[in-house]
Design goal:
Two copies of one chain form a homodimer. Chain A is built from 13 helices and twelve strands. Chain A is an alpha/beta fold. The longest helix of chain A has 16 residues. The radius of gyration of chain A is 25 Å and the shape is elongated. The mean pLDDT of chain A is 93. At the A-B interface, α4, α5, β2, α6 and α11 of A face α4, α5, β2, α6 and α11 of B. Chain A binds a DNA duplex through α2 and α4. Chains A, B: Keywords: DNA-binding, Transcription, Transcription regulation. Chains A, B: It holds the Pfam family Peripla_BP_3. Chains A, B: This is LacI family transcriptional regulator.
DNA sequence: CTGTTAGCGCGTTCAA
DNA sequence: TTGAACGCGCTAACAG
């Protein structure tokens, strides 16, 4: 299959390559007549611009690297990611941008890969889909002064790094207060990985709500677990060993909730009859499992859209009003909370 | 930030650009001594090869377009996708390949995008993460003779299209037989989108198992639904309206199972006490929900790895022994099946 | 409105 | 073992 280039079109039409190029760009200084002619020949010969060649000369790829947690991380299974990806994709598509997905299994592999993308100028910008404590990737990007935005709150340099986030502290407070308002007094917190900023913030909100309600925050009531089944088990077992058992739990992520609920059931505790439970994210699952989860809807899709919008703005040198873009949350009230009067 | 190119290194070291290029390629005809020198200067100046420039000259990008269902499709929420992506990524990483993710919301957008990737020579190959009936994308790729592999079984041209698949007919048969062996006689089938080849195959297996057991296949017992909640509801309602209610259900996808189980519970039917249920995929969830699902483990991760391996083989002109690559399945026995003696 | 010229940064002949 | 020259396919100055 012969490759059709701009030159071929030039030859056939009798115009110069630059004219052809202008037709492609739909340059206004080209007469409609020539445009017609040129386009006809393009169709005929099946011409299509070579993106790589164009990228080389314009020094831009219109491609953004989208970085997920390293794939060894269990949290990758979280439907959260496909949902942000959907959001990002929808905006990218309309702006004709592409997403290059990271694939590293370990932190180190991921780092190498990002280095390759960035230093090799294979992407114009980066979207980080998570925020961790002491992330070398962030340091690297900052040092290189490379355009990037983060979904979630940076652990450092909050007013230098553009990020799209929920007010997770507020969200944690809101959902805990919902429990309080429904008469719950002994509220436990089960969080995911403790080095995730999002976990920290939600926990902070939980603590704030308790304090404001005059309820002391007890260390025993706060548990950290992984996304693994055994983790869910341990968390539940820890709770069951408490002298005074909680009447409600705030879980930092819907996915963990699923495990926790099923563990509780195994120990004969039903949600919400015996114990109430709320969590965060409002992934598709939280609505279809039994009981349907009362959870904070953080609008994952919008997080994706806005981060896409932000990175494209940065890459196209538009002004960005704010470093911190907050997506509002709301509570999806469902059936995992019992009303204690 | 000044861009460091091969020429800069050439200037500083006193060698010619072509020598530098050879050092990068680690060409054996360059003396170790010069290599050392050149590399030292590269480090010093912070040189990194420009991937776009390289891609242009070698006429290859070492990136593969990975195509998901259009993002309007609810099935995208299925953790299946992140899991294949993990598999693909792990192999790509080790071969230094990149993944370009599709983002189209509608079928048409997706088609346009693929056209752009392919015609614009922005990718060396394509992996299709689904298989539908009458897919124009497949026709396009076939017609252009563009390298691609499919995860799942093609609806047409089975022995022309390279694809990585499970033996879903066998899987459907196996899991149905498991039900049969446990004493179930009235077995219903709930399938996802009816134009997905995978649904069709699993149903075929279900029917085969029934026939071989001498049980007539009843149209009433076969229901198709979407991934939506309402769909799950309708499916369950249809089942409950049956004069003779089934004692077990084969569901074509774990994600649908979740909805079905929760609907059943809403109607007072517990799994497996009142009705047994089995399904397919063995996503992370199926293990942590209650009851833990007895499901066909199709090894999603491996599907990803093998499809990655295949597309890279094709793109690097290696010989591929088989068009059809089958990933073996096995049954993960858990707690959603009751034994009727 | 259109053509000429010059690169973008790199790999690869061919010659030395 | 190294260098000069060319070209990948395209855009963008500068001319006219």
């Amino acid at each position: 299959m012969k490759i059709v280039t701009i030159k071929d079109i030039a030859k056939v039409t009798g115009f110069s390559p630059s004219t052809i190029s202008r037709v492609i760009a739909n340059n206004s200084r080209i007469s409609e007549e020539t445009k017609q002619k040129v386009r006809a020949v393009m169709d005929e010969l099946g011409y299509h611009p070579n993106l790589t060649a164009r990228n080389l000369v314009v020094q831009s790829t219109k491609t953004i690297g989208v970085i997920m947690p390293s794939s060894a991380d269990k949290s990758l299974q979280n439907p959260f990611f496909t949902e942000v990806l959907r959001g990002i994709g929808s905006y990218f598509h309309q702006k004709q941008f592409s997403m290059l997905l990271s694939s590293g299994q370990t932190e180190e592999e991921k780092f190498k890969e990002i280095e390759r993308m960035v230093l090799g100028k294979y992407v114009d910008g980066i979207i980080l889909l998570y925020s961790r404590l002491n992330d070398s990737v962030v340091d690297f990007l900052k040092e290189k002064n490379f355009p990037f935005v983060m979904v979630g709150k940076p652990s450092e340099y909050k007013d230098e790094i553009v990020h799209v986030d929920n007010d997770n502290i507020k969200a944690g407070k809101d959902i805990t207060e919902h429990l309080l308002e429904n008469g719950h007094k002994r509220i436990s917190f089960i969080g995911g990985a403790a080095d995730l900023v999002v976990t920290i913030d939600r926990q902070k909100g939980y603590e704030t709500a308790l304090k404001e309600a005059g309820i002391p925050v007890s260390e025993e009531y706060i548990i950290h677990t992984e996304f693994l089944k055994s983790g869910g088990r341990e968390a539940v077992e820890q709770i069951l060993e408490l002298k005074v058992k909680p009447d409600a739990i705030v879980v930092s992520d819907d996915l963990i909730s699923v495990g926790v609920i099923s563990m509780l059931e195994e120990y004969g505790l039903k949600v919400p009859e015996h114990i109430s439970l709320v969590s965060f994210n409002n992934i598709y699952f939280s609505e279809i499992i039994h009981p349907a989860l009362t959870t904070v809807d953080i609008q994952i899709y919008r997080l994706g859209v806005e981060s896409a919008k932000a990175i494209i703005q940065i890459c196209t040198n538009q002004v960005l009003n704010e470093k911190r873009i907050i997506i509002p949350h709301c509570i999806a009230y469902r059936n995992s909370v019992k009303v204690i009067k």
